[in-house]
Design goal:
Helices cover 16% and strands 28% of the residues. The protein has helices at residues 14-23, 68-77, 87-94, 203-207; strands at 2-7, 27-32, 44-47, 82-85, 101-103, 111-119, 135-142, 146-148, 155-160, 172-176, 182-185.
C-alpha cells in the first residue's frame, strides 16, 4: 500500500511518520502542500504533526486551504484511510473533514509526556485488530490539543484514560468521521513504534492498514 505523508511549511514529524509507515510494511511517499495532486497510486494519507505556517493565524487554518487538501478530500470521499496526527488533526478539523475544533489546553501550557489511551472504536481502518477497551501508551506534545465539539458528530476512537491532560470534551484523544476512514488524534503514535522510546503501542494504528 502506498501512503502519502504530507509536508507543510513547519511540519516537524514527517520523518517519524514515514518510518512508522515503512515499519508497518507500507510504502511512504512524501507529498508537498503546494502539489496539485497526491502521488500516483496513493491509497492512504498521513498528515503528521508540527506547526504548519507557524500557527500564525490559527492552528491548521492556513494549511487546511493548501492545494493538496483538495486531493485529500477527494480521496477521503472515496473512503480511503486518512490520518491526521496533532497538527494534522487540527488541519482535518479546520478543513471540515472531521468535526469539532482544537483549542488551547485547559492548563494554557504546552504538554509533553506519555499518555494512556483507551480504544473506544475498533472498527476503523486505523484500529482494526485492536480490541475495544485496549489501553495504548502513546506520547502527547501539544499546546492547542483540547478537542471541542459534539462527540455524536463523529466516532470517538480514542479517549484519554484516567487523567484528561488537556481538557478535551468527553476526554477525546482521537475522533473519526461517520464512515470511520478519516481519523485525527492529538497523541503521536509514530513516536511509539520503537521500544527505545518507551512504547511500541503506536505500531498498531499503522499495522491496521
Amino acid at each position: 500500500m502506498s501512503v502519502a505523508v504530507i509536508r507543510f511549511p513547519g511540519t516537524l514529524d514527517h520523518e517519524s511518520a514515514a518510518r512508522a509507515v515503512a515499519g508497518a510494511g507500507l510504502e511512504p511517499r512524501y507529498a508537498w502542500h503546494a502539489d496539485d495532486a497526491l502521488p500516483v497510486g496513493t491509497e492512504a494519507v498521513v498528515i503528521p504533526g508540527g506547526f504548519s505556517y507557524g500557527d500564525h493565524l490559527r492552528s491548521g487554518a492556513i494549511a487546511s486551504r493548501a492545494p493538496i487538501m483538495k486531493s485529500i478530500s477527494e480521496l477521503a470521499e472515496r473512503e480511503a484511510p486518512v490520518l491526521g496526527i496533532c497538527n494534522g488533526f487540527q488541519i482535518l478539523c479546520e478543513s471540515g473533514l472531521l468535526p469539532g475544533a482544537l483549542r488551547p489546553n485547559a492548563s494554557l501550557s504546552f504538554i509533553c509526556r506519555q499518555a494512556e489511551l483507551e480504544v473506544a472504536d475498533d472498527a476503523t481502518p486505523w484500529t482494526g485488530g485492536v480490541d475495544a477497551g485496549a489501553v495504548l501508551s502513546i506520547p502527547i506534545k501539544h499546546h492547542d490539543g483540547a478537542w471541542f465539539g459534539d462527540p455524536g458528530a463523529g466516532r470517538v476512537v480514542l479517549r484519554y484514560r484516567g487523567e484528561n491532560p488537556n481538557g478535551s470534551v468527553d476526554a477525546v484523544a482521537g475522533i473519526a468521521n461517520a464512515a470511520g476512514n478519516v481519523m485525527g488524534l492529538m497523541p503521536h503514535p509514530e513516536e511509539a513504534c520503537d521500544a527505545l522510546l518507551g512504547s511500541t503501542d503506536g505500531r498498531a494504528l499503522f499495522s491496521a492498514l
